[in-house]
Amino acid sequence: MNLSSIIRLTCHWSLLLSLVGATQAPWAQEVYPSRAITMVIPLSAGSQMDALGRALADSIGKQAGQTVVVLNRDGAGMVLGMDAVAKSRADGYTIAFGPDAPLSQMPHLRSSVPYKPGDFDLICRTNVANMAVVVGPSSPFKRFDDLIAAARSAPGKLNYGTAGVGTPPHLLMEAIAAELGLKLTHIPFRSIGDIAIQTMNGSVDFTVTVPNMLAVNAERGMRGLALTGSSGMPELPTVPLVREFIDKSSPVANYGVGGLGFYAPKGLAPEAMAWLRKACKTATDGADFVAASARTLTPVGHAEGPEFLRAMQVGSQVSADIVRKLNLKLD
Questions:
Q1: Sequence-ordered list of residues with C-beta below 8 angstroms from that of 20, at least 6 positions apart, any chain
Q2: Do domains 37-129+258-326 and 132-254 have the same CATH topology?
Q3: For residue 195, how far is the Cα from the chain centroid?
Q4: Which of 3, 98, 165, 183 has the most Cβ atoms closer than 10 angstroms to its Cβ?
Q5: CA angle, corner 41, sides to 331 and 194, nearest 5?
Q6: β-pairing, 258-265 with 223-227?
Q7: Looking at the domain 132-254, which fold is it?
Q8: Are the CB atoms for 26 and 55 separated by under 8 Å?
Q9: pLDDT of 5 above 50
Q10: Residue 52 has what pLDDT?
């Protein structure tokens, strides 16, 4: 074969390969979302987060025309579930839904947290989250003042329940106790259902939890004594705010209102981020999610990722100040 024949053959194959590549390129490029999405909720099934997350998953799945698989992965103060997401591929097919506490609070409490807040892209905020101090129907405490007076008169005698060591309710109550000079005994629980049972039967003197527990058990006699936040909740008009009982200049006065939202591994592709943010807004505006938020006393508070990040960073600084003041470390 002479040189001119070799050149003609080479050109022929080059043209053929370019035509094949041009034909295959549209098929090789995946349009997001084109397969199932896994939503990790770092809390147990049946929790407030689970109820909200499943309502969102249903809406996002319908918008995508794909299945959204909800995976409950609780443990270690929500660290296990969030770490699994941080280590996933940043392709939009593994996302997390839940509170911002694993990013804004837990790193200040545990040096062993296996991720950094910067390991995540914040997609959107869906809700703002308060915390509540609640008691069972047989409790002698009718007001938060009554509880404070009893704790002062018998240091260490009163006990309170939370969803675990290092959780936002635990940090909140320890901060309030330090602010008011109280000594309390903390009893951590793994199961939200168990906390509710022990609160209702009086095995714990009071509980610090999400308002959803009060919504579920109010008809059975559970009462709210105090709420976090800077303004009251219309659904609980007679429950006072924690900030009414402490120094307004204290960081504790502004603690306890976090955000719930969606997170992805750092480096999410722009097209996936754009789709997810649009889908998040549609989902939070949907009647089913608004109803689920109302049932769980979790106000809808949609915000785009950058706004969610700024609010989380403010909350993170408040948490850092409180942890430093209490000299509280979990490892």
A1: none
A2: yes
A3: 19
A4: 98
A5: 70
A6: unpaired
A7: D-Maltodextrin-Binding Protein; domain 2 (3.40.190)
A8: no
A9: no
A10: 96
User: In what order do the strands lie in the sheet containing 300-304?
Assistant: 68-72, 37-41, 94-99, 258-265, 120-129, 300-304
For residue 132, which phi and psi values (nearest 5 degrees)? -135, 145
DSSP letter at 118 equals: G
Give residue 29's Cα distance to chain centre: 33
Write down the pLDDT at residue 27: 41
Q: Write phi, then psi, for 151 (nearest 5 degrees).
A: -65, -35
pLDDT at 29: 61
* pLDDT computed for residue 242 by the predictor: 94
Alpha helices in the chain (DSSP H): 3-28, 48-64, 79-86, 101-104, 106-109, 144-153, 168-180, 192-200, 211-217, 270-285, 287-295, 305-326
The answer to whether the CB of 220 falls within 8 A of the CB of 233 is: no
Q: pLDDT tens for residues 38-68?
A: 999 998 888 889 999 999 999 999 999 999 9
Q: How far is it, in rounded angstroms, from Cα 217 to Cα 154?
A: 28
Name the residue ranges covered by the structural domains of the chain: 37-129+258-326, 132-254
Tokens representing 152 are 């002062």
The confidence score (pLDDT) of residue 22 equals 41
Query: Tell me: the pLDDT tens digits for 96-105?
Result: 999 999 999 9
Element (H, E) at 157: none
Highest CATH level, class, for 37-129+258-326: alpha beta
Query: Rg of the chain's alpha carbons, rounded to an integer?
Result: 25
pLDDT for res 143 = 97
Of 201, 200, 173, which is closest to residue 186 (Cα–Cα)? 173
Measured at the CA of 120, the angle between CA 174 and CA 124, to 5 degrees, comes to: 85
What is the average per-residue pLDDT within 122-142? 96
Tally of residues, the chain: 331
**301-311: pLDDT as tens digits:** 999 999 999 99
